[in-house]
């Protein structure tokens, strides 16, 4: 799997409205988005020393993070994901989990992972044993996704970012969440070899610069 380019900008509500209009004019709404958007819930992993969080804050050049993710609280499709960063480029590896497997990991049952046929599950298990990775926090948010064929471009607008308070059961719909500080809105742009000028122009905002925003880091502000 090749690494992809990634831009992130923290924007305001006025920017969100502007970008939504521009992108609808030049790109397609992701076909997986009902009414143009969907809700994402992610369960992030870290160790007792906050290795993942510290590497993010310190801007470590080569880093990775694991998360379990589902969409619109639909348990028919649950992903284990590993996101890697190197020199500002990113890539994502995915393995599907069953409801029982996701519940087992969130509940502290890990032994079965060693016998999995999925390499990503085995890798997470190994790092849980070696590095002490454990489920740490839940992050919820709404996403409006757009796609553009040339360059394999994906543009997303993320908002209503909330974090769980000491809740790591990703399947618990009653998990209490609170807004991330500052109620951030995030523009993300990802592409392969090149970013077409039509998209580059559409996402340009005066006074906005790329920033290493992390939803996981935002979610850890409360602990």
Helices and strands in order:
Blueprint: E1 4-11, H1 13-26, E2 28-29, E3 38-46, H2 51-58, E4 62-71, E5 74-86, E6 89-97, H3 99-106, H4 119-131, E7 134-148, E8 153-164, E9 177-179, E10 185-191, H5 197-202, H6 215-219
Antiparallel strand pairs: 1-6, 1-10, 2-7, 3-4, 3-7, 4-5, 5-6, 7-8, 8-9, 8-10
Describe this protein's structure:
The protein has 223 residues and is an alpha+beta fold. It has a single domain, classed as VTC, catalytic tunnel domain (mRNA Triphosphatase Cet1, Chain A). It has helices spanning 13-26, 51-58, 99-106, 119-131, 197-202, 215-219, and strands at 4-11, 28-29, 38-46, 62-71, 74-86, 89-97, 134-148, 153-164, 177-179, 185-191. It has an 8-stranded antiparallel β-barrel with strand order 1-6-5-4-3-7-8-10, surrounded by 4 helices. The radius of gyration is 17 Å and the shape is globular. The mean pLDDT is 93.
Short description:
The protein has 223 residues and is of the alpha+beta class.
């Amino acid at each position: 799997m090749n690494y992809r380019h990634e831009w992130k900008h923290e924007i305001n509500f006025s920017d969100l409205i502007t970008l939504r209009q521009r992108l609808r004019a030049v790109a397609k709404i992701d076909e997986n988005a009902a009414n143009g958007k969907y809700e994402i819930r992610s369960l992030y992993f870290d160790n007792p020393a906050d290795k993942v969080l510290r590497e993010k804050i310190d801007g470590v050049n080569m880093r990775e993070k694991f998360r379990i993710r589902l969409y619109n609280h639909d348990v028919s499709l649950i992903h284990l994901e590993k996101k890697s960063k190197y020199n500002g480029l990113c890539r994502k590896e995915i393995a599907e989990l069953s409801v029982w497997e996701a519940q087992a990991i969130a509940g502290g049952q890990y032994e079965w992972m060693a016998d999995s046929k999925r390499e990503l599950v085995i890798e997470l298990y190994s790092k849980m044993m070696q590095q002490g990775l454990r489920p740490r926090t839940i992050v919820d948010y709404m996403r409006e996704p757009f796609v553009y064929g040339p360059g394999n471009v994906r543009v997303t607008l993320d908002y209503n970012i909330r974090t769980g308070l000491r809740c790591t059961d990703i399947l618990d719909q009653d998990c209490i969440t609170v807004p991330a500080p500052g109620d951030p809105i995030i523009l993300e742009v990802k592409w392969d070899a090149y970013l077409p000028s039509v998209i580059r122009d559409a996402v340009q905002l005066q006074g906005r610069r790329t920033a290493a925003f992390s939803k996981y880091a935002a979610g850890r502000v409360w602990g």
